[in-house]
Amino acid sequence: MDLEAAINNQSMMNKWITAAYRVQGVHSYSFQYHSHHEYEIYFFCGGDCKYLISNRIYELEPGDIILLDGMTLHKPNPKIESTYTRSMLHFSPTWMAEIAAVLGIPNLLDPFKKLNNYLLRTGYNESGQYIDQQIKKIVGLLAWMNEEMLQTGTNNRLLEAEVKLELVQLLVKIYKMSQEELAHVSNKKTEKEVHAEAIASWIKDHFAEKMNLDRISTELNLSKYYTSHVFKEITGFTVMEYVMGCRLNQVKFLLEMEPDLTLAEVSSAAGFESLAHFSRYFKEKVGVTPSRYRKNKRIADTSGTKEDSL
Questions:
Q1: Which residues 6+ apart lie within 8 Å of 246 measured at CB?
Q2: 170: burial class by Cβ within 10 Å (0-12, 13-18, 19+)?
Q3: For residues 306 and 300, is the Cβ–Cβ distance under 8 A?
Q4: Span of 15-19, 29-33, 87-91, 183-187 with lowest mean pLDDT
Q5: Is the predicted pLDDT of residue 66 greater than 70, yes or no?
Q6: Which residues of 229-246 are buried (b: 16+ CB within 10 A; e: fewer)?
């Protein structure tokens, strides 16, 4: 395997997990609202930082862990003069859901799905220290994998398995830390809220597929009328507005992170049935064409103002 093939192989690995440990400072980056398709574990180590998630603001304390579903707009807002230090881990929920099902723990990702971008305040207690060290361990294994891939041109399957096992252990710990809140959330939700959440969760997993209200209601064993009305009542969105919002977020992610994909490939991967519809919808919602959006992001990258999700 040549170097280019090795890099491409490693790139596939990076599609399901990326991580950084104790990154310091803000450098020249601007911290803008952003979203991504991966789930995120954000660990705040120190500094002076507020974290904005949709319309909520958290004043962070060292040891805070934020569990993000990725698709909700979010951004850190650190003070430039402080030593802003954080760790971050992104992982593919689709890939991890498959592993969790095989292991017999299908609810493993509930903290990300059901707690609405939740903050765990650990104060660097024993649990917080464990999460901190697990992220460090995973970052080390990923760096080792990258180095071996570039040197040998082959993927070390043993190291890859170690990464997966360490991630599972990390998520099991987070699930245990979240159990009390999960039980509380489950107990206080109305039947309509539970159904609306199930609809949103199903859409997040399937938005790139051919989608209509008939299919969603059938998959969830709900009537078409009830599916439409309960979702609108609880969320304020129609079902298809939410589907299109998920697709739009995915398009933005692909335009930024997959520069080699054609617009037709981006459109198809996000679930749009035609390139013309995709282009019209994107310009209507974002204000620029998809190609201009991609060019603007490339210009931002080269000028040192690339959006920083850490």
A1: 71, 203, 204, 207
A2: buried
A3: yes
A4: 29-33
A5: yes
A6: ebbeebbeeebeebbbbb
Residue type, 143: A
The sign one gets for the Cα dihedral 26, 33, 88, 16 is: negative
Cα maximum dimension of the chain: 58
For residue 195, what are the CA distances in angstroms to 133, 226, 235, 287?
Answer: 37, 10, 11, 34
The helix-helix angle for 239-257 and 224-235 (nearest 10°) equals: 70
> Which pairs from 29-34 meet CB under 8 Å and 24+ separation?
29/304, 29/305, 29/306, 29/307, 29/308, 30/305, 30/307, 30/308, 31/75, 31/76, 31/77, 31/78, 31/307, 31/308, 32/75, 32/307, 33/73, 33/74, 33/75, 34/73, 34/74, 34/75, 34/307, 34/309
Residue 269 and residue 257 in contact, taking contact as beta carbons nearer than 8 Å: no
pLDDT at position 87: 96
DSSP state of 239: H
The full set of domains in the chain, from first to last, is 3-185 (2.60.120.280), 191-302 (1.10.10.60)
